[in-house]
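Entry for the shared binder. Reason: the reviewer on the internal report wants the predicted structure included alongside the sequence.
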Amino acid sequence: MLTLAQDAGFSLDEIAPMLEGDATGLDRTALAAKADELDETIRRIETMRDNLRHMAACPPPDHLECENFVGLVRAGFARRRGA
């Protein structure tokens, strides 16, 4: 249980109450929220992977000639400003 919770990204402070008693006392809301966080992390990592693959295979000799690359850079700046 401890390893599973740590692998899912729970802190020890979050895990401690889960270890008190049996597994029926697990905070299902916290588990669902952590799953949502993991979904968002997966989405971001998949986007990074796809962007890197595009950049590696992008045909123009200069990435600034690629509309897709320029769009990725602009989207990245927009996310940073909004974050």
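Summary line for the report: The mean pLDDT is 84.
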